[in-house]
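Hi support team,

I submitted a single chain yesterday and got back a structure, but I'm not sure I'm reading the token output correctly. Could someone confirm the output below corresponds to the sequence I sent? I've pasted both exactly as they appear in my results page.

Thanks,
R.
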Amino acid sequence: MLRPLELAIALRFVRSREAGLFVSFVTWASLIGVALGVAALITILSVMNGFEAESRQRLLSLSGHATVYRTDGAAFDGAALADAARKVPGVTGAAPVIEQQALFIHGEEMAPATLRGIDVDREDSVTALSSVLSGAQLSDLTAGDDRLFLGRALAFQLHVVPGEEVTLLLPTVDPDGALAPRLRTFHVVGLFEAGLQEHDATLAIGTLADVAAFAETHGATALRLRFADIYAAPGGARHLAAGWKGFGVRDWTEENASYFRAVRLEKTMMALILLLVVAVAVFNIVAMLVMVVRAKRTDIAILRTLGLSPGGIVRIFLGQGLLIGWSGAFGGVVLGTALATHVDPVASFLQRLLGFEIFDSNVYYITQIPSLLKPWDVCAIALIAMLLTLLATIYPARRAAATHPAEALRYE
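Hi R., thanks for writing in. Yes, this is the structure output for that exact sequence:
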């Protein structure tokens, strides 16, 4: 624990100009380096958190938080199961669904895609399909009319526009094992654009009844669920499926596991790289304190002859290093928090100043820089910076305590 006298001496050493201009320069460079490193780390991680949240929202915009399905692949009464699931605490939405892989044909263009049948009355409780439709409404899908919504990228690939027809080919086999493909014509009544290739280029949506009739199944093949807490979905879905015999479950962390694993790895590597900036600034603190120790040998010897213990000398130089490092960490937290919470206005200002667009709306789905500041990230970064600073001051402080008063004062 730093005592008041030792703190006062540490402050005097920080403000002292006797060590020379170069030491003062290194001191300020160390403080600014720690501040910039901490601020950059907070800002970059907040932006990456924002992109992760935005991507997760887009990934889940056309799928539920969890999917319950029959392990034997058989169809079931989706409406009855959806009503039962809605009564479970934590479940905010449930909707039956059926999916089939089919070949979409329009003129000379062909593309494989997923044909999804939905319950129009329940779909809005699970997905955000209504919000991504373009030039159409969810009520435009009516059972028995063979109508479809196509992803915009899929429609572009097929050269089809709303109002035209597409032919779907479903590969099947007859009881004898021979190929017996089914063909059916559907009317395109609208397009959707979720902002991800996983949906826009590979998905078409119709009514549950029409898709079931085309696939010759007798009900839904899966039940999609939405939870009040997205992070409670994996456990909640498994608890729910455990009470239904013959059902399995997939949640959003499994369906997009490779993507979120890549995001976590990228965040970890970026954090380690940016921590090197803080580490360089911390090494500057070590160099600065070593130079101060050499310049203050006489002062240290006088303090020792006045009765100050070696432990007191250690605490003085620990205090000096921590004042510099922790001031930089505090300044970095303030600057990083300000940048993270105003990253989009700052980016817009830089775009106007430099005359270029960071995210071209003709290329990117996300045209603004999202940012999600997490208090835990800020605390962790500040604590790591403070810990590195503390470790950096140990060697110079111990070296100062090892100064022999007689040797230091021999030629004074």
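A quick pointer for reading it: The longest helix spans residues 21-59. Let us know if anything else looks off.

Best,
Support desk
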